[in-house]
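Form 7-S
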Amino acid sequence: MKRWRNRNYLSFSVLFNCSLSGKNSDRYIPAFSFGFLTPLYDFVMRWVTRESVFKPDLVKSMEITEEYKVLDLGCGTATLTILIKKACVEARVVGFDVDSRILAIARSKIKKADLDIALNLGTVLCLPYADNSFDRVASSMVLHHLTRENKILALKEVFRILKPAGELLVADFGKPQNIFMRRPSLIIRHLEEASDNVKGLLPEIFQLAGFGEIEEIGKYMSIFGTISLYKICRPRE
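Output:
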């Protein structure tokens, strides 16, 4: 287990205007880079990334209680969102994603599970939530879709909506933990925006967004490379 601390805490109010300048400021990469692959998302995630192992661990690390409000950021087809709700059905759970087609799949799965989960559409660069409004935020396999600049912008938005001492739990590609993971990591670092992840730079990026205490609490081998699990705490005010 590794820990990082940032002692130069930053103060953020409302940081962004939703109409960010620049043609590519809110560009996103669909699941597996191409929209036509979206229907295969659940199958690939289940069998290739071992989500059935790391997602339950992520949910357990969130330590959700009935009074919590929880956001699944980049919820995709709501596999993780549903696990979060089932872990504590009294908690308020919200799923958020930029892809309307993948949210349609999520709605169908939530309806089939007969759970009360809100789903919102929008960009992670300007979250439609009030300051200090969530106790926990989860992010699974989302950050590697974003450029370095947009990783920082999105994480600053998470910082803004988290309550003081609230926590962000992240599962995403990380630095290879052994020789077996080096080869697939060499491939994934050249796809999408995963280079910073594979270089082990995510903790520094979390710090640039203002987060104070960062723990790497798990590593998981997958066909695509190492998946790291982080627990990141917003400093108390």
